[in-house]
Amino acid sequence: MTESAITADLVAVLVAVSNGQPLVMTLEDGAALPAGPFEPGHRSLQAGLRAWVERQTHHPVGYVEQLYTFADRDRTKVGARTISISYLGLTRLLGGGGDAGWRGWYEYFPWEDHRAEKPPVLRLTAAYLTAWVAAGSTITVRRQRRERVDVNFGLGCTWTDELVLQRYELLWEAGLVPESPHRHESGVALIPGTPMMHDHRRILATGISRLRAKIKYRPVVFELMPERFTLLKLQQCAEAVAGQLTHKQNFRRLIEQQQLVEETGEFATETGGRPAKLFRFRAEVRRERAFAGTKLARAP
Amino acid sequence: MTESAITADLVAVLVAVSNGQPLVMTLEDGAALPAGPFEPGHRSLQAGLRAWVERQTHHPVGYVEQLYTFADRDRTKVGARTISISYLGLTRLLGGGGDAGWRGWYEYFPWEDHRAEKPPVLRLTAAYLTAWVAAGSTITVRRQRRERVDVNFGLGCTWTDELVLQRYELLWEAGLVPESPHRHESGVALIPGTPMMHDHRRILATGISRLRAKIKYRPVVFELMPERFTLLKLQQCAEAVAGQLTHKQNFRRLIEQQQLVEETGEFATETGGRPAKLFRFRAEVRRERAFAGTKLARAP
DNA sequence: TACCTTATGCTCATTGTTAGCATATCATTG
DNA sequence: CAATGATATGCTAACAATGAGCATAAGGTA
């Protein structure tokens, strides 16, 4: 065998938001992301991914963006090497989400949902991570570990929502997730959170990180929203993605001053209180220009 | 042939800054980026890239980051499909840059250097792009083209330095660069700027875009700087990358309040005026944490 | 010594963010 | 029908970040 035997896989992180919950499309009873081989017939990687996802999930995908390409050795099958090219896709949920494949993404990352109060998992996580810090061989290693833990999990400073991938990788290194090969090192129990096959949970973390970052400087929320919506719905969608609550009045002000949306003139009455104006995204925004994104205003 | 015949290439955008000029490592007399096949022996893509670049350029690479994976059809050789995985690498220039491969990156993108005054190419570019806008078939197409041109080239609004890739793609679509297959459409002359083989100039644009964006929120400048330096040198490095001048006093204030650097106690006297303090990057920053990057302060 | 050059410190106006108060408008209930 | 509870929406004070300019310091050279 002189030539390298290489195959290419496409993996999709397909995201939707329904009822204030962020969802991801899965297969294998929630243990895998949609994936399939890249076929030479496809016009491009992006086209290949679109075709594959739509065939597999019967969902039209609105926005698609490349995430990362993996080819680490533990992905090797015998005699062949697989390159996985992962994508983030955003979509609206059409028919009430009858599909069985949709899972709330906080099942996989319970420590990432800060909308209610600090998730209880975090206390446990902090304790285990502190043990991992203390288990470092030299003082330098311990200091570096301490710093990483503090920054990523917001112990000294503030919680940064985009660090999903870094946090997952930290837990992986510390042997606190079942996917980790370092489990023997610490021998401690596991952090709650559903695992996935191969490195799919890492890919999902990459997708969430990217989306949380992107939503702040590009108008991609609207890919997740229906045609018409109230500002509260929009806010809840942004909060679902960010995993953090926001100050209502400031959120509204930001949205308005960015000229992201326009009134339809209609009202939504099913809210229980004063009827809310219905909005739609402005046409210029839908055409994905270099507009500002959905900035979040921290909750009080 | 049932199985897909796929090969994987690694392409590097290797960047350094010397004398206030941003440089990129090239081959083929400036017409290509360093590239080579990904071999199954490599531990990972990143390791493969590192090995390849260091063997080919005899340069140690400090920081490496994946850019994008391409597999468009026009990359096809007969019977095989090549996937190109591109990387951004940052390095310090050691021995005065005797290597012939280093090229100033503004040779390839003369419209991106706004440090002196508006580059003269821009007048030409704007004129050609306006013609392209007018050549749109329908009024909708023309309006969309106008909006894209305005936003990307800062005609109505302000110039945004990170849009290097989008600007190049616009010129490509408009048939204004020699690499473009749309040249017949407009039949106009070409915009100055050295072309490259295949889609290497697009990959370079991707790298510059990424670096210009990254430098603002991650401390990566120091990968391009020598051990000790004056604040002016640091500023000039940042300006070289951004292609824009910055307000000196405000730059200093930002750097200091971010605690990016610390004084060494020494002074540089070769400046011509009052001797400048020499600084070095703080150890915490060198260990690449989630620190803030080098924010730029717009010039007056 | 006068003058040029670069370094460095400080101020001020403007803008953007955070947080909270106040009011409007619906439904429901006593 | 008035009181109550819910949500929507408007407004403002306090504070932080940014952009721009003035002033001074400390070296060199004519």
Characteristics:
homodimer, two-stranded antiparallel sheet, 9 helices, 8 strands, DNA-binding
Commentary on this structure:
The structure is a homodimer of 300-residue chains. With 300 residues, the first copy, chain A, is α+β, with helices and mostly antiparallel strands. Chain A has helices spanning 45-57, 121-134, 139-152, 164-173, 183-186, 200-214, 231-242, 248-257, 283-286; strands at residues 6-18, 21-25, 35-37, 63-70, 81-90, 102-104, 261-268, 276-281. In chain A, strand 1 and strand 2 (21-25) form a beta hairpin. The model of chain A has no long low-confidence stretch (mean pLDDT 83). The interface between A and B is large, with 36 and 36 residues.
In short:
Chain A contains nine helices and eight strands. Chain A is α+β, with helices and mostly antiparallel strands and 300 residues long.
Task: Furnish the topology, listing elements before pairings.
The structure is a homodimer of 300-residue chains.
Chain A (H helix, E strand, L loop, with lengths): L5 E13 L2 E5 L9 E3 L7 H13 L5 E8 L10 E10 L11 E3 L16 H14 L4 H14 L11 H10 L9 H4 L13 H15 L16 H12 L5 H10 L3 E8 L7 E6 L1 H4 L14
Parallel strand pairs in A: 1-5
Antiparallel strand pairs in A: 1-2, 1-3, 2-6, 4-5, 7-8
Helix pairs in contact in A: 2-3, 4-6
The structure holds a DNA duplex (30 and 30 nucleotides).
